[in-house]
Amino acid sequence: MADEKTEHSEHEEHEPESPEIHFEPIVKLSLVEIKTMEEDEDVLLSLRAKLFRYDHESEPKEWKERGTGDCKILKHKKTGLARILMRRDKTLKICANHYIYPTMELKPNCGSDRAWVWSTTADFADEECKEEVLAIRFANAENAQKFKTQFDESAEEMKKVLRTKTVLEMCPNLISDGEAYAEKSDSEKTEKDTEKQTNGDGDGANELAGQLKGLKVQGTEIPPVDKTVEGSTE
């Protein structure tokens, strides 16, 4: 028995080791930088929420869920333009993508202190301009109030931003009727310009909404059940 064990151990010692087999990949994949089009923007606010859209075409008309994820309010570093961007969890598919303009107003949904409703004339979540009525619900009233505060501040600031020459030069599509909307010096102001300014948020605000409808938002997508806005957020 001892001799058999000795022979067996000697056989194992002289047995050649298995060579490491290496296969070269048929296709070499190089690293590709993926841009989200958010690199030139500052994040003013980012809160988790659930988004809904009002479907006017369904019978009966109803609220439909668009997705759950982080809702961001972004501000472009150069132009100062502010927009809302929201992506769905996991898929990162865009469910809201539009500029915030002065005519927008957040309204409570059914008296809830953590849900808001607003309308936009130009949302690009589906890569094409659409008028949408949207509703958003947060986990608590505190987050809902933070969203409203930043939303209102951005809308107020956009009144000035939309008149700057930088925006007009970088975004020529912002002008829908061919007239310059930039602030002019006192010597250049015409009677028509003065009349627009005195109208305040009336005709001037409507004009801003029309101009924004012609401006495409950066950051299009990478790669239904009847519900009310009131309820719990995931």
UniProtKB/TrEMBL annotation:
SUPFAM superfamilies tied to this protein: PH domain-like
GO biological process, one term: nucleocytoplasmic transport
All copies of domain RanBD1, residue ranges: 22-160
InterPro entries: PH-like_dom_sf, Ran_bind_dom, RanBP1-like, RanBP1_RanBD
Recorded GO CC terms: cytoplasm; nuclear pore
One MF term in the entry's GO annotations: GTPase activator activity
PROSITE patterns in alphabetical order: RANBD1
Gene3D superfamilies: Pleckstrin-homology domain (PH domain)/Phosphotyrosine-binding domain (PTB) (2.30.29.30)
Residue ranges with Basic and acidic residues bias: 181-198
Region annotated Disordered, chain positions: 1-22, 179-234
Any one Pfam family match given in the protein's UniProt record, by short name: Ran_BP1
Name assigned to this protein: RanBD1 domain-containing protein
Native source organism of the sequence: Lymnaea stagnalis (Great pond snail)
